[in-house]
Amino acid sequence: MSNILAIVGRPNVGKSTLFNRLVQDRKAIIHESSGVTRDRHYGTSDWTGVEFTVIDTGGYVEHGQDVFEVEISKQVLLAINEADVIIFLVDVISGITDIDLEVANILRRQKKKVIVVANKVDYSDRIYESHLFYGLGLGEVFCISAASGSGTGDVLDEVIKHFPKDEPVGDDEVVEIPRIAIVGRPNVGKSSLLNALVGEERNIVTPIAGTTRDSIDTHYQKYGHDFILIDTAGLRKKSAEMEDLEFYSVLRSIRAIETADVCLLLIDAERGIESQDINIFRLIVKNHKGVAILVNKWDLVEKDTKSTDEFTKKIHEKIAPFIDVPIIFVSALTKQRILKALEVALDVNENRRRRITTSKLNEVMLPIIDQFQPPAVKGKYIKIKLVQQLPTHAPSFIFFCNLPQYVTEAYKRFLENQLRKNFNFTGVPILVFMRKK
């Protein structure tokens, strides 16, 4: 289940500061002047094992005169509609303003859980001042200091209570049917590929970027295959001119990646692999999903005997260090190698679900570790005694040793490469953990 938390409120109440704290990164620009956040920022966070996406919105302005203010307010409303839980952030120093009342009126009409959070409660006397916000009629008020982090734990405890729960799977339902998402920048041929696979005009296809506004599921049962295909709206670089529906599309695409088992990343053969393709690839890897890269419109490119090798090399240079990814050159228009792409996607899904027994892991990995031991640090030698695979959705391995804090990232990559060399994990991100036995 993909969960989305939206942070809304009027300008300059500390939304971006709270966002940065939740995602543990300084993605959003913070400044004392209002209106700095004109675009939406997305980040992932987790609390007590529950993962969720956080949206930082621009400040809502009632009847804004500036064109940016009008657009920001529209995007705040879209974020409210799309989110599962909403944090309504208010400023305890300023008290209730007319804009706060306007936002509260909007939120009371939503069928979503709204959590009122009073920010800038930096010392105990301000807790009493926060009681004023009960007058908004939205229930309990939580007090925090986004700058110091005080009180955010209580807010997150409340947030995760209200995320949708996974529906139980009945005995007669399909269990663990693979979900394959077709993702990429706008207008690279995602809908054309899906239409070619299912053999009908399932989705609208036009030369105009952004025709697909939502994520669409198709149950595919052909040629002995059985899985869900997800055609997503294109993810493009965010800009101040991003229209409302496109913002909605990006949220849906993020959801599709988070809920998929394998992502087919389409890139345009004529344009080559671009920065936004890399951003989407990183998003897939960050969510620990299987991935295969499809170079579409290959029929339109002038080729020679070295074209595929040269193109593959360029892709590897851009996606390094994770280059153990299948690359297939296809054409959705002529249906060239599209069934091969499906077979590869299902192979990647099998790799993602692969489980290696502890005895087999140790039989293979311990001799390699003995031959290429971790470098000594400060005269201390690291001894790895046991390897186990964790029971997680994505392949994760834990190496037990005497000094886990001294194992370098370079040596962890060496271990990952050896796992890939001896076991088939092509197209799947691998997580390596070091723990004290």
What does this structure look like?
There is one protein chain. It is built from 12 helices and 15 strands. It is an alpha/beta fold. The strands form 3 sheets. It has a 6-stranded mixed sheet with strand order 2-3-1-4-5-6, with helices on both faces. The protein is globular. Helix 2 packs parallel to helix 7 and helix 11 crosses helix 12 (409-422). Helices cover 33% and strands 21% of the residues. It has helices at 15-23, 67-82, 98-108, 125-129, 152-161, 190-198, 244-259, 275-286, 307-319, 338-352, 358-371, 409-422; strands spanning 4-8, 41-47, 50-56, 85-91, 113-119, 141-143, 179-184, 216-222, 225-231, 262-268, 290-296, 327-329, 384-389, 396-401, 431-436.
